[in-house]
Amino acid sequence: MAWNLLAGLLIGFAYLSFIILVAGLAFRLYLYAKTPAPLKIVSTPGPKTTGGVLTRLAGDALIFPNLFQADKALWAGAWVFHVCLALVFFRHARYFLYPVPEWISDWASPGILMGFVLPIPALYLFWRRLALPRNLFISGLPDYISLMLIILIAATGMLVSYYARVYLVDVKAFTLGLLSLKPVAPPAHPIFLAHFFLVCLLMIYFPFSKLVHAGGIFFSPTRNQRDNVLQKRYVNPWDKEVGID
Amino acid sequence: MTSAKVEFPELAPKNGILPVPEMNEGISAALTCHPCKVKDMRAIALPTERVPDWQNKAVEKLRELLTKYRSLQVYLDICAQCGACADKCQFYLGTSDPNNMPVARANLLRKVYRYYFKPFERFTGGEAEAFNDQVLQEWYTYFYQCSECRRCAVFCPYGIDTAEITMAAREIMAAIGVATKYVTEVVAKVYERGNNLGIPGPAWIDNCQFLEEELKAETGRDIRMPVDEEGADVLLVMPSADNFANTDTMMAYGKLFYHLGISWTTSTYANEGGNFGLFLNYRNMKKVNKRILDAARQLKVKRVIWGECGHAWRAAIHTDTLSGPMDFLDPPHPVHICQFTADLIKRGAFKIDKSANDDVLVTYHDPCNAARAGSLLEEPREMIRATCNKFIEMPRDTIREKTFCCGAGGGLLTDEIMPIRMAGGRPRAEACRSTGATYLATPCAICKAQLPEVMKHWKVDTRVGGVHDLLSKAMIL
Lengths: 245, 477
Hints:
The complex is a heterodimer of chains A (245) and B (477).
Chain A: H1 2-34, H2 50-63, H3 65-70, H4 72-91, H5 93-96, H6 102-106, H7 108-117, H8 119-131, H9 133-138, H10 141-163, H11 168-179, H12 190-205, H13 213-216, H14 221-224
Chain B: H1 38-43, H2 54-68, H3 70-78, H4 90-95, H5 102-117, H6 119-123, H7 133-142, H8 151-155, H9 162-175, H10 181-193, H11 201-219, E1 234-237, H12 247-260, E2 264-265, H13 282-298, E3 303-306, H14 310-316, H15 319-322, E4 335-336, H16 337-346, E5 362-364, H17 368-372, H18 378-387, H19 418-433, E6 439-441, H20 445-457, E7 463-465, H21 468-474
Parallel strand pairs in B: 1-2, 1-3, 3-4, 5-6, 6-7
Helix pairs in contact in B: 2-9, 3-9, 5-7, 5-9, 12-21, 16-18, 18-21, 19-20
């Protein structure tokens, strides 16, 4: 009885967190898209063409060139961290798809490997916040919360995959149930439940926190504008009436 | 309050690069600019004193700016507090005050934003603070220890430009009647006299005549310094300091146009390229900018060329947006004098004797505004290579888009914060020292006013001057 109640609550919570993540992030990005950019403030040297802008943004999202210039150790930590996150995230597709497409199965091994690697950069990023005085100065609770959530999620994930294994068929029944809107009870496995619960928390936290850099980076005016202000007149959306004081 | 004696750490540089100092929290907190004067605030249509209910007014202004500036909204949200920018600001390197780390500076505004606009973030432990007297004091101090030079943006993985945050904070403060004497006084002078220095029209004309005599004595030619001449081809808007302090640069313009046979003029209505509105609020930036186009229409010129001034160029590239369209002028527009001259050099318009500059080893300082906010990287270098045999670049991480600000940009060129200026100028001074250069060329009047003091203070034996000065010496009339 108590288990059924708990399972029901968790399922409700899962749907709620997902809605918050999607709606929250969509709202945030919509806000960025609709907020006008009054002046062109391209970071030098800036791209002249749309293709150049797309290349620059792709570079920013995939290899963090500015960070590389700024701090090699931080770049290494942050880049490995993000690659691990991406591959681990990708690997989870196999829990949500049935049947699992072959190309996703093929990527399972790097995914699992990255799951083991992930805590290293995550702990490094956590460590430098505490150990380097300038980073300690700028770090606040939100910075620790985000990292801690991810570290705990990774740790519980590895535990249920390797050490206190959860029965995969149960997991899949649960995830496919969620997806098909015909939810069934999750596996009664405490570490799996913790893993799942933490992911829900992260989803809720995501759109309200600095983690929106995940989509927000594409809206950064210094990076997504063309350096063509001398070639083409740019109109400030909220100040079209020029020639007056 | 302002004459505080402060000892900033003085670490030994290595190969022209300063080591990053340990933090000394609050060490530069007492170094604040003099507050604005009633008459200036009245002249530039801002509240003459701190308005009643200023907290709410400030929050309302922030709300308004959030709907107007994508940069502000996005940058307040997405900063991951990674610290990549922390050791990139010349004011942190010079002062060691952690509030001069770009991320921490932005956090001064971010904490107010979180308090009023991100209740969930506050609930989950976000650092948030109501806008109170102490926060306002921090803003007034540290947003006027930022020269809006954008160096941090070059190193931020998301391109977060702290200048945008500083500009927003200054705009908010201006709206509640809080601003510095220096910046507001300069803007008021532009409305009254047409230029930042407040040189009256007759004095401007006198100075021009004096420079004509100087040129006559130097070259034996009747080289003119025209003022308010209707129908001239070119309206030149230089920093007014060129008329008064950097006269070598101004005479160089004169020789240039004389040699080319192009008629030109300055305007006593707009004898200023610089735009201190940029350092205060949008409205005044627009108003100052408009004067230049008004003068161009009034004098019926074909072109406007901006002189050797960094933030003038930063504002000038937005002229089409702020006061345009400029289609009543010949394209391309706007034009920077270095672009104009470099292009003519390439086309062989000058006979140049490079050996005339052999007495100096030249290095080039990229003004932060010209380089990072105006993409002016190549043309001044092309000019120097074409006019000098001996040219040496400063260390790679201190030039071009990674250049250090001279330490007095963004409305900081005021004597009461001299310790901040000297500390902020030190990274540039050490980079310059490492080259052994005897002449530091730079196309910016703020840099030309600040850097000689910096070089003297840090005992670097380098003269500071314009880029056109070099051409002036080397060109054969």
